[in-house]
Amino acid sequence: MNYRHIYHAGNFADVHKHLILMMTLDYLQQKEKGLFVLDAFAGIGLYDLNLPEPQKTGEYLDGIAKIMAHPAIHQDLQTFQKTIALFWGGKQYPGSPLLAANALRAQDRLVANELHPEDIDTLRHHLRGFKNVYTTHEDAYQSIRAHIPPVERRGIVLIDPPFEKPDEFKSLIKQMHEWKKRWATGCFMIWYPIKAGQHIAEFHRAAEDLGINRTWVSEILLHNRDNVGGLNGAGIVMLNTPFGLPERVDALADELCSKLGQGRIENRFLVNHS
Predict the structure, then answer these.
(1) pTM (2 decimals)?
(2) In angstroms, what CA-CA distances link 11 with 18, 61, 222, 224?
(3) 114/111 Cα distance (integer angstroms)
(4) Residue by residue, what is the 3-state secondary structure of 210-240?
(5) Among this protein's residues, is 160 annotated catalytic?
(6) Are 54 and 7 in contact (CB under 8 A)?
(7) Per-domain residue ranges for the chain?
(8) CA–CA dist 85, 90 (Å, integer)
(9) Which pLDDT tens digit goes with each residue over 72-109?
(10) Cβ–Cβ < 8 Å for 129, 110
(11) What is the CATH architecture of 5-271?
(12) List 48, 119, 160, 167, catalytic entry
């Protein structure tokens, strides 16, 4: 539990992840029925980019700062900018639980889980005042186990571990099998970093072998994936991907990378029976 996301908040990987999260919520909310959202590794919810930690790394300068510098053309990017602008005046960047809470309708529900003993109090503070938002303080995988399948029977689970453990991919593979047994129709959004020497291909094969329809991968790459010594990119594996989402991500990929001034986005289905 040494990982502190404040050092990396608002970087290119956050932008990619949060864009896809918001677009997924938008699609799922096209139906009137209530929606369940679980953020298993919620963090603190809101990040002050004026603090020494983000100033030390400067990662947000090559991420959200570039996205907010000029008006977007693509509608989904415009929506993202408008949402971030609610907090950006004081150079505050909202994390995934705050973005989800801000998007909830009256019939929707959010559970934001955080294990870190200090971060959970900060998370609760940042989510105060939102209706139908609940916080839990437990192991992320225990939290998922406790909340799926949800009573709403519709929703999304966001899983973005810090990858402090060398066997995190193996843990995810094991967990995916359990999630399929518990909630085979649920939308699961699994984030991972792309660094040299990781077992990403094995992880993709395991996701494909699950056989869940519309299992999709979206990766943002700034460098060759085998470059040693840093974060080369980030990816998302999504189970039960909403119809239309991959096409929406494809449509904004060029503008997103142009705004960032580097990189490329690679999207593909691992399983697609439709």
Answers:
(1) 0.97
(2) 11, 7, 12, 18
(3) 10
(4) HCCCCEEEEEEECCCCCCCCCCCEEEEEEEC
(5) yes
(6) yes
(7) 5-271
(8) 10
(9) 999 999 999 999 999 998 899 999 999 999 999 999 99
(10) no
(11) 3-Layer(aba) Sandwich (3.40)
(12) 160
